[in-house]
Amino acid sequence: MTIFKQSPFANDAYTIGWICALPVEFAAARGMMDEDHGEPQTPPAGADSNSYFLGSMGKFKIVVACLPLHQPGSPPAVAAAKEMLFTFPKIRIGLLVGIGAGIPDIDNELDIRLGDVVVGSSPQSGGVIVYDFGKIRDGSFESLSVLNRPPKSLGTALGKLQALHESRENMVPHYVEEMLVKHPVMRKNYTHPGQSSDRLFQANYRHVSGPRNCNKCEASQIVEREPRPDEDPVIHYGTIASGSMVVRDAAIRDELRDRHGAICLEMEAAGLMNNFPCVVVRGISDYGDSHKNDRWQRFAAAAAAGCAKELMQQIQINALDGEPAAKDLVYQGQFRV
Ligand SMILES: [Zn+2]
């Protein structure tokens, strides 16, 4: 039974916008909230097609918006952000939180595993680059573009988070467990699937047709990696490559890594970074190759939401006051489109 619950706070009390593309990401965001505020006090206008959930994490009131079902990708994400800023005009910063594909680089000791988290952050690119899938197939990457940097308050918080993790473990396992205790029904699907189901195949070995679970794929083609001592997600900071199509090709994946330093692939950030002052947080659910399946999606979504929650703890409340309203930035054209 669903009970309608309306937020006790006016729409303009919310200052952080959190965007998800998939229902499993929306569920993880909702599960991570410290307080559940329910639906917006003032319903969105008819033209606003987002699903919303309102809540709080620590000192911040947060709007979570989910893209319309089966419409992932950059244009729907940009539309969702713009609609959200109309309905919640005091939002100052945003987070794009969900799943993505990891690009390991074992030879160079970049050991990204399923369930790890990548945060878009790079001194050269602001953390996200856009690539054109068609151009990649032609062997040309000339259309790559660099996007806006995350807003200052988030940039400062990212620095603080990295510094903290020099001296202590990240809080992701703690926040995921807290979510599972609070929402026991999620335990079945949102727990770590186990290291034995994290299989990275050699880049030149293609998936054997049949079940998506790789049961017919050759175990001898699995890249050998040292088991980790625990199942705790590791947070990586680096360049996220954003494109218009799902990558299921290890050659394209590795090309983006080798030529542009990308460590993660996703589909929503292109466009959004130039239309919304935000940072991108991706839980790794596959390796962007022909073996890609959905097995890790829920845990990866939970890990990303946990990382976003820890990031938010590092934002000073007065730093947010110093940020202009995102709506003003976007609609005054201060963002490059
Ligand atoms: Zn396979």
From TrEMBL:
Q: Which InterPro entries match?
A: NLR-like (IPR053137), Nucleoside_phosphorylase_d (IPR000845), Nucleoside_phosphorylase_sf (IPR035994)
Pfam families, per database record? PNP_UDP_1 (PF01048)
Q: Which GO terms describe its molecular function?
A: catalytic activity
The organism sits in which domain of life? Eukaryota
Q: Which residues form the Nucleoside phosphorylase domain?
A: 16-305
Q: Name one GO biological process term.
A: nucleoside metabolic process
The molecule here is called: Purine and uridine phosphorylase
UniProt source species: Aspergillus ibericus CBS 121593
